[in-house]
Amino acid sequence: MVNCAKCNGQAALKRPKNGDALCRSCFFDAFEREIHATIVGNDLFVRGDSVAIGASGGKDSTVLAHVLNLLNERHDYGVKLVLLSIDEGITGYRDDSLEAVKRNKLEYGLPLEILTYKELYGWTMDEIVAKIGLKNNCTFCGVFRRQALDRGAWKLGVNKVATGHNADDIAETVLMNVLRGDIARLQRCTQIVTGQEGMLPRCKPLKYTYEKEIVMYAHFKKLDYFSTECIYSPNAYRGH
Ligand SMILES: Nc1ncnc2c1ncn2[C@@H]1O[C@H](COP(=O)(O)OP(=O)(O)OP(=O)(O)O)[C@@H](O)[C@H]1O
């Protein structure tokens, strides 16, 4: 038996982040404390903020919604949280993942707003892919989503957006920008708060959280999320 490095009980995992052997409860504690430290250390929220959590139904945004809701109560941030989902119109993917978001809305007691590409742009991603095929479709979708999240946030009257981007996502983005030689983006992409002119600030509370630990946390906490990859992303540069 391996002992928990914190409480000496039975360890349940070895943390990918630092190799510590921890029991479940000490892992939850460390995981949540680190996200709290990121929020406080970077002044991500101030009392009275209204924050839309970009909720895709995937593991990252589900863990983000769960942890923000918990920390907001535990540490009395005084922040109003709302779930904001964008339905890109991808049959067999987003329709299923949005069902997970709807269940989370009930579980966490948070309001949920869903905006669709169809109503915003007149096209679903299914229709776009039928027209342009599986080349550059992720680029379209990414640009649309960024704007859709912003429009949804204005509609909800919030002053900030939080997304579930994690440390692995950011490392991938750094690598992609190096390979593309995109110096401007390389500098921007590691910032914890972004927001181009005229857009609401966006923050990434999971910036220092490892993807593997997010999966472990979601698994041990039995969080309700949808784990399939987008059916239209096999050619995406990120995956490559
Ligand atoms: N359809 C969407 N609606 C709302 N927010 C989204 C949507 N897609 C992505 N996001 C936001 O952007 C973040 C990063 O997007 P990414 O494509 O990595 O998400 P994912 O793999 O679909 O799901 P997740 O990141 O939740 O595991 C998400 O964590 C979420 O906050």
UniProtKB/TrEMBL annotation:
GO terms for biological process: tRNA wobble position uridine thiolation. GO terms for molecular function: ATP binding; transferase activity; tRNA binding. InterPro entries: CTU1-like_ATP-bd, Rossmann-like_a/b/a_fold, TilS/TtcA_N, tRNA_thiolation_TtcA_Ctu1. One of its GO terms (cellular component) is mitochondrion. The keyword Hydrolase does not apply. Gene3D superfamilies: HUPs. It comes from the Eukaryota. Residues 51-228 form the tRNA(Ile)-lysidine/2-thiocytidine synthase N-terminal domain. The keyword Ligase does not apply. SUPFAM superfamilies: Adenine nucleotide alpha hydrolases-like. Keywords: ATP-binding, Cytoplasm, Nucleotide-binding, RNA-binding, Transferase, tRNA processing, tRNA-binding. ATP binds at G54, A55, S56, D60, I86, G164, D169. Plays a central role in 2-thiolation of mcm(5)S(2)U at tRNA wobble positions of tRNA(Lys), tRNA(Glu) and tRNA(Gln). Directly binds tRNAs and probably acts by catalyzing adenylation of tRNAs, an intermediate required for 2-thiolation. It is unclear whether it acts as a sulfurtransferase that transfers sulfur from thiocarboxylated URM1 onto the uridine of tRNAs at wobble position. This is tRNA(Ile)-lysidine/2-thiocytidine synthase N-terminal domain-containing protein.
